[in-house]
Amino acid sequence: MRRDVFQAIADPTRRAILALLALHAMTPNAIAEHFDSSRQAISKHIKILTECQLVNQEQSGREIHYHFNPQKMKEVDTWVAQFRAQWESRFDQLDELLKNQNHKQS
């Protein structure tokens, strides 16, 4: 099954893994230490994140280090941006309405 970025970040564990990797690269064992899940479950989450290119892996001797790929998150930002403009416009309208109400009460 082909997954996309949105499916990958829909899971709270995968979002937590991304948050960890955004701070610094980590091995799978180091990532797993932060969760109560089994090492196998964490590996599955890492695999999904890798398939979606949200993380990159780098071989360093016998260890694999995973790195966060912020470029891939631009896809999410682009999608959210269309809604952000609407929200900001509505908040501006609400601010204006509240100001007008306050002036009427004064």
TrEMBL record:
Keywords: DNA-binding. Gene3D superfamilies: Winged helix-like DNA-binding domain superfamily/Winged helix DNA-binding domain. Residues 1-88 form the HTH arsR-type domain. It comes from the Bacteria. SUPFAM superfamilies: Winged helix' DNA-binding domain. Transmembrane segments: none annotated. The keyword DNA-binding applies. GO terms for molecular function: DNA binding; DNA-binding transcription factor activity. This is DNA-binding transcriptional ArsR family regulator.
